[in-house]
């Protein structure tokens, strides 16, 4: 394997994708986790571009980073998980 610019760039984005996936899983804050998921989607999209698959890279950004992440963030904001003490409080009839 020759170390040209394309191979180094692919390796860098692969390492960044793995690191962002690990950070995404280990964070307690769901907003931070969702943002690292967006970073992971963009890294995977760049890796598709390195494989010369432009259509899949654009669809990756449009569908996953655009539509799915808006849905995730909408659900996170709708649940309002900031005050978890309300979830375990007393139940009134």
SSE arrangement:
Layout: H1 5-26, H2 30-50, H3 54-79
Can you offer a commentary on this structure?
This protein is mostly helical. It has helices at 5-26, 30-50, 54-79. The mean pLDDT is 86.
Task: Sum this structure up briefly.
By secondary structure, the protein is mainly α. Helix 1 runs antiparallel to helix 2 and helix 2 packs antiparallel against helix 3.
Labels describing this entry:
93 residues, mainly alpha
**How much of the polypeptide forms β-strand, as a percent range?**
under 5%
Q: What's the SSE pattern?
A: HHH
Estimate the mean pLDDT confidence.
86
Helix content: over 70%
What global shape is seen?
elongated
Low-confidence stretches: none
Q: Quick one: biggest sheet?
A: none
């Amino acid at each position: 394997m020759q170390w040209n610019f394309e191979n180094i760039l692919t390796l860098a984005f692969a390492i960044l994708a793995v690191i962002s996936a690990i950070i995404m899983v280990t964070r307690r804050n769901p907003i931070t986790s969702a943002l690292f998921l967006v970073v992971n989607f963009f890294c995977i999209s760049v890796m598709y571009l390195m494989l010369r698959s432009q259509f899949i890279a654009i669809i990756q950004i449009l569908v996953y980073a655009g539509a799915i992440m808006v849905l995730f963030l909408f659900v996170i904001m709708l649940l309002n998980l900031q005050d978890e003490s309300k979830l375990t409080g007393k139940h009134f009839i």
